[in-house]
Design goal:
Blueprint lengths: L1 E6 L5 E7 L6 H8 L4 E7 H16 L4 E8 L8 H13 L8 E5 L1 H13 L6 E5 L2 H7 L4 E6 L2 E8 L4 E5 L8 H17 L2 H8 L3 H6 L1 H20 L15 H10 L7 H18 L6 H5 L16 H10 L8 E8 L2 E7 L1 H15 L1
Parallel strand pairs: 2-9, 3-4, 3-5, 5-6, 6-9
Antiparallel strand pairs: 1-2, 7-8, 10-11
Helix pairs in contact: 3-4, 5-6, 5-9, 6-7, 6-11, 10-11, 10-13, 11-14
This protein binds nicotinamide-adenine-dinucleotide.
Length: 363
């Protein structure tokens, strides 16, 4: 069992515990971060069906009375008003008090939804994240962003709200679908480019199968990812500047996700393809990356983007709508070199060429 302290700009810290088959350690962790004898649970429905027994056992070790449990069906559609209202109604109708923690168990959808509910209830009750997808472990459970979606767009209603603690047990990752694995792996590769080349090299030395089967490797990669994300958000909790570098590959990726109506590409596949385009754009602006290194992961992904080849104008139009773009043009996160990210308003010609090269690489 390893533990990191994540610091927020408000000078507060919270612990992130990472282990494999580590339920027996949960009561000590719980007593340190909360000690409450009651809680409300928000849990992903699929996680409940796959790991309900082990999670119930873990919570029972703390003698916790669960006042109310809300199950969140799989899928982005759950991150909306309906479930937010049900969580709030259920918690208030079952005796939640200002100091009653909300424990959120699942991937980024459950984390964002349950975290936002915790931030709204009584102007903020304690929040504990128990992420169960790789993406939630290396990304969404760290940094304090919570949200639901609106018909106008993703994550448009939300709050910055930090948890009291985050508990990660890699035993639960074993049941993840391959697509959900690579969602998380794309973010880990991203940390290699924007912050620490060693993380990238470590992943490059292994096959996906090896990473999935070696808990120690997995824990090490998660620990390094948490450290990198925590360092970046600590310097910029409310996303005024530096935090933008976490979007490396994402602006290109979001445009491809949107053009495929969020059905053609999984988020992690779009981010992977987006990073290839972002590297090409970085090289056009003077960097000297071997794009081949990133392309060597191509087999992990099932990326079908050939049908976007003749639709670059539409992709650029979608990038202009990105909330990070400005009146002056499309703002991209690029890299001068390993661990030297920067944000730049980027010429449309550069973006067009980067897309063309991406399509050649992945055709
Ligand atoms: N708050 C942030 O900073 C932040 C950062 C990145 C992404 N996000 C958000 O995160 C969401 C994506 O997160 P995600 O990729 O975890 O998706 P998700 O929560 O939809 O989970 C993916 C799938 O895995 C299933 N699942 C969860 N745990 C499992 C397990 N242990 N075994 C088997 N199946 C399991 C879920 O039921 C779901 O079908 C998006 O809504 C995105 O906006 C938030």
């Amino acid at each position: 069992m390893e533990e990191l302290q994540v610091e927020t700009t408000q000078g507060e810290t919270y612990p992130v515990a990472i282990g494999d088959h580590c339920s027996e350690g949960f009561p000590a962790f719980w007593n340190r971060i909360s000690g409450s004898s009651k809680a409300v649970v928000v849990i992903d429905e699929r996680v409940k069906s796959l790991h309900g027994d082990s999670i119930t056992h873990m919570l029972s070790l703390c003698d916790l009375e669960i006042l109310y449990e809300h199950q969140v069906p799989s899928g982005e559609a759950s991150k909306g008003w309906e479930h937010l209202r049900d969580i709030i109604d259920g918690a208030l109708n079952h005796g939640l008090l200002r100091n009653t923690p909300v424990i959120v168990i699942g991937g980024g959808v459950t984390g964002d939804l349950g975290g936002f509910a915790a931030s709204c209830l009584m102007r903020g009750v304690p929040l504990i994240h128990i992420p169960t997808t790789l993406l939630a472990m290396v990304d969404s459970s760290i940094g304090g962003k919570t949200a639901i979606n609106h018909t106008r767009g993703k994550n448009l209603v939300g709050a910055f709200y930090q948890p009291q603690g985050v508990w990660m047990d890699t035993q639960w990752l074993k049941t993840l679908e391959k697509r959900d694995w690579v969602n998380g792996m794309s973010e880990i590769l991203k940390y290699g480019y924007i912050a620490d080349r060693k993380v990238f090299d470590q992943v490059a030395d292994l096959s996906l199968q090896e990473i999935r089967q070696q808990p120690d490797t997995m824990i090490d990669l998660i620990r390094q990812s948490v450290r990198i994300k925590a360092e970046i958000v600590n310097q910029d909790t409310k996303e005024k500047g530096l935090r933008a570098v976490l979007n490396f590959g994402h602006t290109f990726g979001h445009a491809m996700e949107a053009l495929g109506d969020y059905g053609d590409l999984a988020h992690g596949e779009a981010v992977y393809a987006g990073m290839i385009a972002a590297l090409e754009a970085s090289n056009i602006r003077g960097a000297r990356f071997e794009v081949q290194k990133l392309l060597s992961f191509k087999d992990w992904y099932d990326i079908r983007i050939n049908h976007f080849k003749d639709r670059i104008d539409e992709l650029i139009a979608l990038m202009k709508q990105d909330k990070k773009s400005t009146e002056n043009g499309i703002r991209l996160v690029l890299v001068h070199d390993w661990a030297r990210p920067y944000v730049a308003v980027t010429d449309e010609g550069v973006i067009r060429t980067s897309f063309q090269r991406l399509f050649e690489h992945l055709s």
